[in-house]
Amino acid sequence: MTRAIVFNGDETWELRDLPVPDPQPGGAVLRVEATGLCHSDIDHFRGHVHTSWGGEFPSIAGHEIVGRIEKIDPAAAEKWGVDEGDRVAVWDIVFTPQGHRIYGHDFSVDEGSGLYGGFAEHLELLPGSMVYKLRDDVPADQLTVFEPLSCAVTWVAPVKSGDVVVIEGPGHMGMATIVAAKAAGAASVIVTGTARDRFRLDCARRIGADHTIDVEAADPVGRVREITGGQMADVVIDAAAGNPVTVNLAMDLVRKGGHVVIAGMKDRPLEGFHSDWIPTRRITLHPGAGLDAAGAVALINAGKVPTAELLGDSFPLEKFEDAFALLTRSTPGRDSVRVALRLS
């Protein structure tokens, strides 16, 4: 049997013991070592899933998954290029006959083995999955950053060598985007946040940001103008989740002819957006909607990612409530750049 955290979709969860299956033809069974927690897990807990499939309940959440292959069908071993015992990152998209689905969101615990999310000690890897070998000399909880980084390396597609990049939001996606922007050749990275983000803004400097701005203590438009000598940012990446006000601010921070990437998921419609900004200032908008797990894993395996600094805090399965409280920023006196769950 294996233990799993199951979300019921009504802001409740339970711990279940589930049988560990044998691999299907073309599949495998993963012994999960660690899973990163994401803002989308908060939405999942509340019954909201932002996938094209639409989510399933009750279900095992968690999609930033690192583990070791425990059992594997020979056909899968050949196709994926891995063997039993290999440490891998799991791409969260799986291609099924019914369409593509997301591990940690789109599978009910009552379907098949039920083990289709990272908040469990085992994960059933279905045919149509993709995995990538990860280095063995770094703790697994640090390596879960591969998943946010796999998004971030696509968000920085407009960044050219020598660019000034503003990243809105110093959450774990924003932190990953700092690394990706520097890898893409950004000469200067500016990170914005609010007063409650003081801890995270300090961490952003250690990870590689050249400047940070508390938008409640200083005028962000004026500070970016000062930092850039009046030129403003070449690229603004809105990685902030929640309040959509950052979209309007991004349009004020970017230079004429610059690029704005809208990536962070918002919790309400945007008000006050002036579409005239786009043609009159020749601003190009990009969706933050890509995944490049192979590219992210390559950066990690090459030692180009400060995985320890990006981890933040990790908890054993038994302390899931503490991990989730820190993720939701409801732990008095504490904050973290990122939270992970250790499963083994």
Features:
Rossmann fold, 7-stranded mixed sheet, Quinone Oxidoreductase, Chain A, domain 1, 344 residues, alpha/beta, single chain, globular
Draw up the topology in text:
Elements: E1 2-7, E2 13-18, E3 28-36, H1 39-45, E4 64-72, H2 74-80, E5 87-90, E6 93-96, E7 99-102, E8 122-125, E9 131-133, H3 140-143, H4 146-155, E10 164-168, H5 172-183, E11 188-193, H6 198-207, E12 211-214, H7 220-227, E13 233-238, H8 245-253, E14 254-262, H9 277-280, E15 284-287, H10 293-301, H11 307-311, E16 313-316, H12 320-327, E17 339-342
Parallel strand pairs: 10-11, 10-13, 11-12, 13-14, 14-15, 16-17
Antiparallel strand pairs: 1-2, 3-4, 3-8, 3-17, 4-5, 5-9, 6-7
Radius of gyration: 20 Å
Strand content: 25-35%
CATH superfamily of the largest domain: Medium-chain alcohol dehydrogenases, catalytic domain
How is the main sheet built?
7 strands, mixed
Indicate how many domains the architecture comprises: 2
Unreliable segments of 5+ consecutive residues: none
Topology pattern, helix = H, strand = E: EEEHEHEEEEEHHEHEHEHEHEHEHHEHE
Q: Give the CATH level 1 class of the largest domain.
A: Alpha Beta
- Reported CATH architecture of the largest domain: Alpha-Beta Complex
